[in-house]
Amino acid sequence: ALLQAIFLQSGYDYRSYSFPSIRRRIHSFIRRNKLSSVTELAEKVLTNQAQLHALLFSLSIPTTYMFRDINVFRAIREEIVPILRQSPLIKIWSAGCSTGEEAYSLAILLKEEHAYERTLLYATDVSERALASAQKAIYPLRRMRDYTSAYQSAGGKSDFSEYYSADPENAIMHSFLKQNIVFGQHNLVTDSSFNEFDLILCRNVLIYFNRDLQNQVLQLLSNSLRPGGFLILGDKETLNIYPSHIKYKDFDRALRIYQKRM
């Protein structure tokens, strides 16, 4: 009933998402907001837009950080970018970009590999609140030590502090990193393909969907990828059990990197 209420009020359809994952997030939201039950939350969702938007943010935002999965970013730098660099215009999609850390990590990497100037990087998410945070590009300063370590381990070629300015509490990513990033709202479940990409990263998003929805989203990603392009999934996700896998070859199975067949 709660998921139906969310759908009626917002158009966001969580009814086919992985039920254990959604249930954990809902009950966590109930505890944080000192509500008594799912029924009370459903009533608030139907009558209070602020409560609805807060719940949507809680349901949609994944864990993310700069250069998450350092081996993936090292592979992008060393193996994928040299191939992409052959194109006059490189189009990349960070699907489910959350608060933007993945997009800015890619911008930094591409800048260092002299490919950012001819790249269009689309960063999308279902959450307006997450996108607003991504566009601000302001992150807690306390995270920078871990981000710096991940950046260096992923093959960083500079001093990570060159990419942000700091105040006593926050790090603000430099504006030149936003130059070729297009932020936009996109629902992987209900929206259609909007471009043809050379590289798509959709990491740790499918784990929140049930099998039918996973297959639907993978079909969307396949339709959005040019022949020879690359798809990167999360470390707990795989392509090889779905019908879409016949369109790809393993580029690096361990890292969940796939290349669409020509």
Would you give an account of this structure?
With 262 residues, the chain is an alpha/beta fold. Helices cover 40% and strands 20% of the residues. Strands 6-2-1-7-8-10-9 form a 7-stranded mixed beta sheet. Strands 3-5-4 form a 3-stranded antiparallel beta sheet. A hairpin with a 4-residue loop joins strand 9 and strand 10. Helix 1 runs parallel beside helix 3 and helix 3 (38-47) packs across helix 4. The termini are far apart.
Keywords:
single chain, about 260 residues, alpha/beta, 7-stranded mixed beta sheet, 3-stranded antiparallel beta sheet, globular
**Percent of residues in helical segments?**
25-40%
* H-E order: HHHHHEHEHEHEEEEHEEE
**How are the strands ordered across the major sheet?**
6-2-1-7-8-10-9
Mean pLDDT: 92
| Backbone structural class | alpha/beta
Largest beta-sheet characterization = 7 strands, mixed
* Beta-strand percent range: 15-25%
Helical segment count: 9
Low-confidence stretches: none
Number of strands: 10
Concise summary:
By secondary structure, the protein is α/β, with parallel strands linked by helices. The chain is built from 9 helices and 10 strands.
How are the SSEs placed, and which strands pair?
Blueprint (H helix, E strand, L loop, with lengths): L1 H9 L8 H14 L5 H10 L1 H12 L9 H15 L5 E6 L5 H12 L6 E7 L2 H9 L1 E3 L3 H10 L10 E3 L3 E4 L7 E5 L11 E6 L8 H13 L1 E9 L14 E5 L4 E4 L2
Parallel strand pairs: 1-2, 1-7, 2-6, 7-8
Antiparallel strand pairs: 3-5, 4-5, 8-10, 9-10
